[in-house]
Amino acid sequence: MPSPIGLFKHLPCVLAASVGLIRLIPDLARPDRTGSLPPMKPSQLYAAAILAGGQSVRMGTPKQLVQNGAATLGSQMLAIARACCDRVLVAGPPGSMPGEAAIADLPNHTGSGPLAGIEAVLATGIAERWLVFPCDMPRLDAADASRLLQGTGAVCCFEDPAAEGKALPLPMAVDASMLASITKFLDTERRAVRGWLDTVTCTLVEPPSRETLVNINSPEDLHR
Prior knowledge:
Blueprint: H1 4-24, E1 44-51, E2 67-68, E3 71-72, H2 73-84, E4 88-91, E5 102-103, H3 114-122, E6 127-133, H4 142-149, E7 155-159, E8 167-175, H5 179-187, H6 193-197, E9 203-205
């Protein structure tokens, strides 16, 4: 049996080898100097979101639940979104769309309108670029919406057919990198998507026919 003295003689070598092994372990989950873990990397390039947290005052009931022919507006928008992206989320309070998981507004901006919904979606970290839809544009063609994803720039919108040189707020393609800009804007108690677009560089994409960009805001709009 080796003597205790002999074991102590080899102790420095054992410790040195242990330190060397530790240095070989990658720093994949090592906290930064603030004590926080590194941000999660997006799991995919593209994803889509449907904004379903509005009050629908003119409609009198949540628009995504309104029947439009054989289907609800919400289910029609889900079909369009899923034709563009494999992953689709709903931004809104729990139960916004039956059978679909909902992403609620972040605590500091609860109830702050569509822009708060976009903020909450970007904050999930799921995708690098998002295609964001309203819940009330059922005549939109998926092929036209997909053109926004291919546009250059961190924010891409159709040019508003009614206002040359201006962006139609939704649908919108937006990079997750714009999260900080949206949060900063909401922190000033401003909430309009158009207002935020005026503060960033937005690439304008040629719009499809005006008829496909119609929002269904009231019961009367269903029959036009």
